[in-house]
Amino acid sequence: MTIAIVDCGGANLRSVQVSFERKGYAAQITQNEEIILNSTHVVLPGVGEAGKVMKTLTSKNLINCIKSIKKPLLGVCVGMHVLYEYSDEKSTECLSVLKGSVKKFPLSKNTPLPQMGWNKIKTLLADIDILNNEYYFFANSYFAPVSNDTIAESVYSETFSAIVKKDNILGCQFHPEKSSVAGEKFIDYFLTMT
């Protein structure tokens, strides 16, 4: 098993890499299309803004590469956001791999932005019950609304997609690499995808 971590400019690349290495798998940070397409699993991490991730993917000619992947592809946080058609974050056109738009949480005194810290998820599919009611680490001001692709949800001022899945695509709003044992369980789930 080989894992390609797409270098799209995030600050969390090394921590994502280590989360796979701890489990004994080779994980390579890369912008090389051939390496990405020949890996068994691909991770699209993201820290920062959807617009910056899309600019990086465009400048490195990786848009069509990412859209053509038929092997398991995991989008993490902003990496999940850019899989959608559009993000309200600086009005960003995204990859359109998933249908829908990413929205900004409404600001309130009880839910300051960004959401920063541990939050519980509720799974909606029996095959991921092992992840149900676990706490994961979130760091986000934007979210994907609940849709037909949502397989786990969480609440922060409103209910949102914590995990989405469609065909070979998996996305998580939280950071599994920062989520301790629960994060390792999620990574195990991703690695079972073929």
Architecture blueprint of SSEs:
Elements (H helix, E strand, L loop, with lengths): L1 E5 L6 H9 L4 E5 L2 H6 L2 E4 L5 H10 L3 H6 L4 E4 L1 H4 L4 E2 L4 E2 L7 E4 L10 E6 L1 E2 L11 E6 L1 E2 L6 E6 L3 E8 L2 E4 L7 H13 L2
Parallel strand pairs: 1-2, 1-3, 3-4, 4-14, 5-7
Antiparallel strand pairs: 5-6, 7-11, 8-10, 9-12, 12-13, 13-14
Short description:
The protein has helices at residues 13-21, 33-38, 50-59, 63-68, 78-81, 180-192; strands spanning 2-6, 26-30, 41-44, 73-76, 86-87, 92-93, 101-104, 115-120, 122-123, 135-140, 142-143, 150-155, 159-166, 169-172. It is an alpha/beta fold and 194 residues long.
Comma- or semicolon-separated keywords:
single chain, 194 residues, alpha/beta, Rossmann fold, eight-stranded mixed β-sheet, four-stranded mixed β-sheet, 6 helices, 25% helix, 31% strand, globular
